[in-house]
């Protein structure tokens, strides 16, 4: 299957070499690499253009757009993609090894019913890798754990058809747009889980989600998402719970009485 890699960049010359080199090493070559750059002023653009020249067998699209947030950049990438599978590889992410996409492709090829795949959490801090395998936790209760957010975006691979069916990332969310999308999907589409780790993300000061300075913003955005989708951490979708249904029935009962009076 053709895999579309979407990489959003803005002045990421410090990290992007590792990202690009990891794509070059992939044994699965039926890929397209889409770059959405927010008019970088450092060496990011130069590095991307050199990469494109080096890899003639990879279909590359280089798009520059005014910075309007990560969600907007990812949406531009989706709309310009043509692959069966979409993967968001940020400029500070890199594939674990050369067979990452080959292993992903085999899963989708083996079972055509697979619509999105979630692998293990892989991170790097101070050049030390940490990989957390919690497939069994997700399989035990993905709908209840969704409020905790255990889905690593860098190890999530999705059929492009999902975006056609469920829409795009919400651009009014600055950090948790992927979290919001996972919850939207989980109401109707159960993912396939793997203990394999395909991608590593680097923890650093400039990272939006892992920077402690952004944690209050993350919580604010998650609270809005919980309210919108009626989700509670460790509980799951409230509308599926009998106590919530009872509450709604009582609410409707008194509402009818009030309307009659």
What does this structure look like?
With 261 residues, the protein is of the alpha/beta class. The protein has a domain at 3-135 and 150-164 and 191-208: Spore Coat Polysaccharide Biosynthesis Protein SpsA, Chain A. It has 9 helices and 13 strands. It has helices at residues 16-24, 44-54, 70-79, 100-110, 135-145, 160-166, 177-186, 215-229, 242-260; strands at 3-9, 31-37, 59-64, 85-88, 93-95, 116-118, 121-125, 128-132, 156-159, 192-193, 199-202, 231-232, 236-237. The strands form 3 sheets. A 7-stranded mixed β-sheet has the order 3-2-1-4-9-6-10, sandwiched between helices. Strands 5-11-7-8 form a 4-stranded mixed β-sheet. Helix 2 links the parallel strand 2 and strand 3 (59-64). The longest helix is centred in the C-terminal third of the chain and has 19 residues, at 242-260. The relative contact order is 0.14.
At the third CATH level, what is the topology name of the domain at 3-135 and 150-164 and 191-208? Answer: Spore Coat Polysaccharide Biosynthesis Protein SpsA, Chain A
| Helix content range | 25-40%
Q: Main β-sheet: number of strands, strand sense, barrel status? A: 7 strands, mixed
Q: Classify the oligomer.
A: single chain
The number of strands is 13
The percentage of residues in β strands lies in: 15-25%
């Amino acid at each position: 299957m053709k895999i579309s890699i979407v990489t959003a960049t803005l002045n990421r010359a410090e990290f992007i070499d590792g990202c690009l080199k990891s794509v070059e090493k992939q044994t699965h070559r039926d890929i397209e690499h889409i770059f959405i750059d927010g008019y970088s002023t450092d060496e990011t653009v130069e590095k991307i253009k050199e990469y494109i020249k080096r890899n003639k067998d990879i279909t590359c699209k280089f798009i520059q757009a005014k910075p309007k947030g990560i969600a907007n950049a990812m949406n531009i990438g989706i709309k310009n993609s043509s692959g069966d599978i979409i993967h968001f590889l940020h400029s500070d992410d890199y594939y674990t090894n050369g067979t990452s996409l080959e292993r992903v492709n085999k899963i989708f090829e083996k079972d055509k019913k697979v619509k999105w795949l979630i692998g293990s959490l892989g991170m790097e801090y101070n050049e030390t890798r940490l990989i957390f395998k919690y497939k069994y936790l997700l399989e035990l209760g993905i709908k209840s754990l969704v409020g905790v957010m255990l889905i690593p975006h860098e190890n999530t691979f999705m059929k492009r058809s999902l975006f056609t069916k469920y829409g795009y990332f919400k651009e009014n969310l600055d950090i948790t747009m992927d979290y919001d999308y996972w919850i939207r999907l989980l109401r109707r589409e159960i993912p396939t889980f793997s203990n394999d780790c395909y991608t590593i993300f680097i923890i650093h000061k400039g990272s939006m989600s892992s920077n402690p300075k952004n944690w209050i913003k993350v919580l604010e955005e998650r609270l809005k998402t919980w309210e919108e989708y009626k989700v509670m951490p460790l509980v799951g979708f409230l509308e599926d719970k009998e106590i919530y249904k009872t509450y709604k029935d009582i609410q409707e009962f008194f509402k009818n009485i009030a309307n009659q009076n």
